[in-house]
Amino acid sequence: MAILDKAKPTVTGGCLCGAVRYSIDFPAGSTWPPESHICQCTQCRKHTGSLMAPFINLKPSQFRWSKTPSGSETPEAYKEFSSSKGVYRGFCSSCGAALNWRSPEVTDVIEILIGTIDEKWLIGDRTDKVSSESLTEKGVFEKVLNAEEGAMGRDICTPLNGQMFVRNAIKGATDARLVGPRYVEVSQARMAIPN
Q1: pTM listed for this prediction
Q2: Residue 44 main-chain phi, psi, to 5 deg
């Protein structure tokens, strides 16, 4: 990881229906790429409907909700479910999209599900450059995929902070060795699996 000498563009994201929106700042002096990890715990699987939940870890000062009613810190459609003692999972009450994980006991981090980041930040403007039909022509898909104009996806999505709860890995499906350390449960428990 490096320290940014100049700010990255503000990244935006939100739920499926647009009722819950947010923005993320990466100011000069922050680390790049940002911390991210994948979780395979049962609660993340149930919250997201996915076998692996990819999160980006942010300082609260980097993150802000948009579309907030006067006098509120969160959008009206944003709700939280207490999935276990001291753990809250955020979602949109209109469309049901899973958005984040937070704990009042961990005040220096908010974890946002990477899939809620707007597509233009993850893959760039490539979908606007070529029709779906032309992607089936020989070499076109690879050319578009490699362009990555405006994309930060590789940096944001690479789980440099590792994989959590690999004890729940599914052989042949979620047991792939990705970058970063692998932890039996959470990284704070310091139970890393040797390489």
Answers
A1: 0.85
A2: -65, -40
Q: What is the pLDDT of residues 164-192, one digit of tens each?
A: 888 888 888 888 877 788 888 876 555 66
How many other CB atoms are found less than 10 A from the CB of residue 82?
9
Amino acid occupying residue 163: Q
Give the SS3 label for residue 172.
coil
pLDDT tens-digit map of 49-95: 999 999 999 999 999 999 888 888 899 999 999 998 989 999 999 99
Helix (H, G, I), strand (E, B) or coil at 49: coil
Please tell me the distance from the alpha carbon of residue 94 to that of residue 64, in angstroms, as a whole number.
20
- CA angle centred on 164, ends 40 and 158, rounded to 5°: 95
The answer to whether 183 and 193 are in contact (CB under 8 A) is yes
Encoding tokens for residue 7?
């700010």
